[in-house]
TrEMBL record:
This is Activator of Hsp90 ATPase homologue 1/2-like C-terminal domain-containing protein. Belongs to the AHA1 family. Gene3D superfamilies: 3.30.530.20. Residues 13-140 form the Activator of Hsp90 ATPase homologue 1/2-like C-terminal domain. It comes from Paenibacillus pseudetheri. It comes from the Bacteria. It holds the Pfam family AHSA1. InterPro entries: ASHA1/2-like_C (IPR013538), START-like_dom_sf (IPR023393).
């Protein structure tokens, strides 16, 4: 499987983009109602929890925090929660959010790589990232998100 790599330029500061990516207020709007639960200490657990198949506390994604550099980088291993795929714990990939100021904008790079060749979550990720990234850009620039209809 090939690496998923996206670059967006957002009319906002790295601080604004960072807050959207990690704050409960931001993540709820861009990540299907989920929030991040983490100490944000490298080597510890990071989870995305929110409404889903297992109720309001559905575990959507979890992994190990690899890097946390505010307004610059957020990297973690990625596994989908148990309600998504049987044998989910066998498949791990890596997500890297990278921010850099470019003039008066922020370049947001998302790299989702290190895929297991049989990971069934790859296909869903290719479509979901476009919605998450579009919502991130729109939220920072306008204060609202896009209406994609049902997220399920």
């Amino acid at each position: 499987m090939k690496e998923l790599h996206y670059e967006f330029y957002i009319d906002g500061t790295p601080e604004q983009v960072w807050e959207t990516l990690i704050s409960p207020e931001g993540t709820k709007q861009i990540y299907y109602g989920s929030v991040i639960r983490s100490t944000f200490k490298e080597g510890e657990l990071l989870e995305y929890i929110g409404p889903g198949a297992d109720g309001d506390e559905t575990l959507h994604v979890y992994g190990t925090l690899l890097e946390f550099t505010p307004q610059k980088a957020l990297r973690f291993t990625h596994k989908v929660g148990p309600s998504y795929h049987k044998g989910h714990e066998r498949y791990e990939s890596r997500i890297s959010w990278l921010l850099e100021p470019v003039g008066g904008t922020t370049k947001l790079t998302l790299i989702h790589d290190e895929w297991h060749p049989e990971d069934p979550s790859y296909a869903g990720s290719t479509g979901a990232w476009w919605q998450i990234l579009s919502n991130t850009k729109t939220l920072v620039e306008t204060g609202r998100t896009l209406d994609f209809g049902s997220w399920t």
